[in-house]
Amino acid sequence: MESAGSRYLLRLPASGGTERTAVPESGVTPELLAALLGTDVTERYRLPEAPDAFAGKSALCYFIDARGGEKALPVNFAGTCFYHTGCPIHGDLLLAVCSEDCGEKEVSGLTAAECDLLTAWLNAQFPVF
Q1: Which secondary-structure segment (H or E) carries 37?
Q2: Structural contact between residues 93 and 76, judged by C-beta atoms closer than 8 angstroms
Q3: Is 27 helix (H, G, I), strand (E, B) or coil?
Q4: Residues in the chain where the model's pLDDT stays below 50
Q5: Mind listing the pLDDT tens digit for each residue in 16-25?
Q6: What is the pLDDT of residue 38?
Q7: For residue 28, how far is the Cα from the chain centroid?
Q8: How far apart (Å, rounded) are the C-alpha atoms in residues 99 and 89?
Q9: In the prediction, which pLDDT does 86 show?
Q10: pTM for this prediction
Q11: What DSSP string runs through 42-84?
Q12: What is the model's pLDDT at position 2?
């Protein structure tokens, strides 16, 4: 059962779609991100665009397995589009809320309503998603 204060990371599997992952009461730590992605090294990037409802709020960041390409993980279509370089992003990624400057320490989960909003926005951005 969801409580009003529940927070989530939004997982975007390489296979498409979205999944919510509950954030523990201890919060989002680098160790949690690495464990959820099955890696020892994560990388953080700021989402280049976001739904209008997030304008003026904290930044949306995504986290990936920094060794995804070396591990020959499948290409993540949405992540590759987010990256804007033409280089593929491999494996699942996690969306979270970060401080506006995307500082290293401030990472938190999304509310259920924010997850719903982001999922609808992603489905509109990536119809094959």
Answers
A1: helix 30-37
A2: yes
A3: coil
A4: 1
A5: 999 999 999 8
A6: 95
A7: 12
A8: 23
A9: 81
A10: 0.89
A11: EEEEE-S---GGGTTSPEEEEEEETTTTTTTPPB-HHHHHHH-
A12: 55
Q: At 47, list the tokens.
A: 């989402």
CA distance 9 to 105: 16
Residues 90, 87: Cα–Cα separation, whole Å: 10
User: What token pair was written down for 117?
Assistant: 């909003």
**Nearest partner of 37 among 76, 68, 60, 72, judged by Cα:** 68
Q: What is the DSSP letter of 36?
A: H
Cβ-based neighbours of 75, under 8 Å, separated by 6 or more: 14, 88, 89, 90
Q: What is the pLDDT of residue 106?
A: 79
Q: How many CB atoms lie within 10 A of CB 89?
A: 26
Total count of residues recorded for the chain:
129
The pLDDT of residue 57: 66
